[in-house]
Amino acid sequence: MALLRAILQTRTLQANPAPGFSRFYSQSSPYLVKVGIPEFLNAIGKGVENHATKLENEIGDFQKLLVTRTLKLKKLGIPCQQRKLILNYAQKYRLGLWRPRAEPVKAK
């Protein structure tokens, strides 16, 4: 009986190592770095960062960039591939699937 109780206790500890917290989190962890338009575009890379000043002047706010449509980006003169990258990463950011790194990756 004591053996059975000990086995059941270890199983419950393994299933939930920290009581009060679920094992899988439904929300992403809070961002450690304040994300603005330049940080967002630098994290995307692939030449998109060249348009940072243009987007900051025209759009202004990062939250507005997240809901910007492709036609607005096209009117600003951003090429098609880079528009696609911005829109794809904005969607991933909104869903919490991607976020800019805290430290930029150094190109070799």
TrEMBL record:
Organism listed in the record: Linum trigynum
Name of the featured protein: Small ribosomal subunit protein mS41 SAM domain-containing protein
| Tree of life domain | Eukaryota
Q: Which Pfam families match?
A: SAM_Ribosomal_mS41
Secretion signal, residue range per the UniProt entry: none
Q: Which residue intervals define the domain Small ribosomal subunit protein mS41 SAM in the entry?
A: 37-96
